[in-house]
Write a structure and sequence with these properties.
Order of helices and strands: EHEHEEEEEHEHEHEEHE
Structural class: alpha+beta
Number of strands: 12
Shape: globular
Helix content: 10-25%
CATH class: Alpha Beta
Largest sheet: 6 strands, mixed
């Protein structure tokens, strides 16, 4: 039974304002995932001690790592990663559209890695959408279109996951449940899935969307003291099988 996790790690700064990459890795280690999608990672940034957080976490979990920098300033990078212990290959890493009327918005991107699960290629796309509704809608439409989910190589089992900064009532959510299905709604269990804020989770803004070839067994958020402290988001976990 494979397990996949999406986790906004808030540059490994916890709710106690303490920077601790090891603590984030420990949260993940407790979950024993096979595939991990991370958002808000710092790589070589002065504010977090010039550490390559993506590869540091991957090393602690004994996983391969693919990182995409949504933002690059000289030697400093900030973005998202996919980690796994399964055979994998990078398919695509690219920027998502912004919103021209507000030029100071943080750049956003997506990362696509093909992961071999029990001999079957599974397409994993990790993303972190913006905060402005029009911006989010353009980004979701891009992900749902020919550049990503409708790309000729994006066939068979597919999982789109990440921090979408949008709830289930949003246009973003409706856009993405057209080509895929919300994993939470496919789960036979009624487990808690709110992820933000970690100290008192009320909002479902981190999501997993799956194709019909994915059989969802459970979707849940851990609520351990460690998870509540390590980031301002809780991880979102899915156990699944391939139909």
């Amino acid at each position: 039974m494979p397990r996949i996790v999406t986790y906004n790690v808030h540059r490994c700064v916890g709710t106690d304002r303490r920077l601790d990459v090891g603590r984030v890795a420990a949260v993940l280690a407790e979950l024993k995932p096979d595939i991990v999608a991370l958002q808000e990672l710092d790589v070589g940034r002065r504010r977090t001690g010039h550490v390559d957080q993506a590869h540091e976490i991957a090393s602690r979990l004994d996983m391969a790592c693919h990182f995409h920098a949504a933002l690059t300033v000289e030697e400093e990078r900030y973005g998202d990663a996919i980690l796994t212990g399964f055979p994998e290959r990078l398919v695509k890493a690219a920027a998502l559209p912004g919103y021209d009327r507000i030029r100071a918005l943080e750049p956003r991107g997506a990362l696509w890695v093909e992961v071999e699960v029990a001999g079957v290629p599974v397409q994993i796309i990790n993303t972190h959408l913006g905060l402005v509704p029009r911006e989010q809608q353009a980004q979701a439409a891009c992900l749902a279109g020919h550049a990503w989910l409708e790309h000729p190589q994006c066939r068979g089992p597919r999982i789109l996951l990440g921090d979408f900064n949008a709830t289930a009532t949003s246009v973003v959510y409706r856009t993405l449940v057209a080509p895929l299905e919300a994993a939470r709604r496919r789960s036979p269990k009624q487990s808690p899935t709110s992820t933000f804020p970690s100290s008192f989770p009320l909002l479902r803004i981190d999501h997993l969307f799956v194709s019909r070839e994915i059989t969802v067994l459970d979707v849940f958020t851990p609520f351990s003291p460690l998870a509540r402290a390590a980031s301002d988001h809780l991880p979102l976990v899915m156990d699944f099988e391939l139909a």
